[in-house]
Amino acid sequence: MPTPQTEPDDDLLPDTRRALLHRVAVAQSRSRTPSLVAAVVRDGRAVWTGARSCVDGHAPDGDTQYRIGSITKTFVAVLVMRLRDAGRLGLDDAVEKHIGGTPADGVTVRQLLTHTAGLAAETPGPWWERTPGALRPETADLLGERPRLHPAGERHHYSNPGFALLGAVVEALHDGAPWDEVLTSEVLEPLGMTRTTRRPRAPHAGGWAVHPYAELMMAEAVQDTGLMSPAGELWATADDLCRWAAFLAAGDERVLAPATLEEMRRPAAPGGDQGLGVQLLKGPGDRVLVGHGGSMPGFVAGLWCDVDEGLGAVVLANSTTGAPTTSIAADLLGLVAEREPRIPEPWRPVSDPDPELLALTGHWYWGTAPYVLRVRTGRDLELTALSGTARGARFRARPDGGWTGLDGYYDGETLRAVRTDDGAVSHLDLGSFVLTRTPYDPAAPVPGGVDPSGWTVPLG
What we know:
Blueprint: H1 14-31, E1 35-42, E2 45-53, E3 66-67, H2 72-85, H3 109-113, H4 160-172, H5 179-191, E4 208-210, E5 217-219, E6 235-236, H6 238-250, H7 258-265, E7 279-282, E8 288-296, E9 299-306, E10 311-317, H8 325-339, H9 355-358, E11 362-366, E12 369-375, E13 381-385, E14 393-397, E15 403-405, E16 414-419, E17 425-430, E18 433-435
Antiparallel strand pairs: 1-2, 1-10, 3-6, 4-5, 7-8, 8-9, 9-10, 11-12, 12-13, 13-14, 14-15, 15-16, 16-17, 17-18
Helix pairs in contact: 1-8, 2-4, 2-5
Region (Disordered): 441-460
Domain DUF7586: 354-437
Protein name: CubicO group peptidase, beta-lactamase class C family
C-alpha cells in the first residue's frame, strides 16, 4: 500500500496574508488612490483577497466591479484564438479577408495580436477613452490619414485601434453579433464569470482623478467607446479576474485548449515581452509572468500569472494615475512564491511506456557535442546539452510522429527520428542537424561524410 502523503493546506499562512495586506495598504496610501482591491490565486483557486479604501469603515470586496482597461485585450485575443482553432481564420490572414473598409489592409491577424502591424497607438483625435464612440461610427474612422507609422512586422508598437479591428473581425465571423455578447456566451458563462460586463453593473467603484499636489479628488466620466471597446471597455470584479487568471495559466477545454494557451504565452514579437494578445513580464527569480495591465479614465488594473508556481494576482484601483498595479501584482506573486513555494506533485512512473519512444532516449551526439534525450509528459521530449556551448530544447509531439521545438534556438524547428529500411533508428534529424549515437558515426549520413581513417592519434 502506498504511504499516505501529507498535502499542503490550501489557505495561505497568517504571516503571508499579513504581508500581502501590508503591501496593498502601503500601495493605496503611497499612491493616494481612493480604493484598491487585490486577490491571489493558487492552483486555480482564490486564496486571498484584500482591500483598502479612503472611506472609513468601508472597502471594496471581490464582488465590486472596476474598469479593467486593456486587460480586455486578453479576452478579445481568446475569442480570436477560438476562431483560429475552429478553422475559421488563420493568424496569417490579412485583415481585409474578414473585414473591409479600413486603412489597415495588408496587416495580418497575428500582427494585430502582437502589436507588430505598425499601426498608430491611438485613434485620430479627440482622445477615444474620454469621448463617445459615436464620434467613430465606422472602422475606417479608427485610424487617421497616417495609419501606419512603421513597416508591418518589423517592430513592436502598441496599438489600441489594432485591437478594435480584431473585435470587428470577431463580430464579422459571428454574423454581426456584438463581440461582448460572443464573449459572454462562449467564454464568460462557461468560466462562471457572471460579473464581467461591457457596461458597469452595481456594485461598482466610481472612477476618480486625484489632484497631483493636493488631497483632493474629482470624478471621472465614463464613456461608451463604441467600436474601440475591444481595446479596453470591460468592467470586472477581483473574483471574476481570479477565474480569468486561473484560465490563462492552465486553460479550460470548454473555452480553449491548454496547448493554445501555451502558444499565446510564448514570446511572439521583437523584445520578447509580447505574446499573442498577452503581455510577458520578468518577475521574481527571473520567472516570466503572463498577463496584462490596463487603464481607463478613473481606473488602473493589473492581472499577472506565474504559471510555474501556479499563482495569479489581480490588482484593481479607481484612480486615473498613481497606483502601479503591475508592480503591486508582481510583488504579491513574489511574496507568496518566496514564503510558500509550490509543493510539486510526487514523481510517479508511467504505467504504459512506449517501447519505440523509450528506445530513442539516452545519449546522442551532434558531431562531438554530447546530448541526452529524455521522455517527458506524454510523448514530449527534452534534449539536454552536456557541454557548456551546446544548445538544448523541449519538444512537443506532433500527430505525424515528429516533434516541434518549444524554446531557444530550436523553437519551431522539427525533430525527426530517421529509420532504415528495416525500421531501426539511423539518426535524429533536428532542423537538418544530424544527431548520432556515437560521435561522427560512420554509419549515419553525416553531412560532408566521415574521414575513413576514423579517430587517429596525430603524428608529430
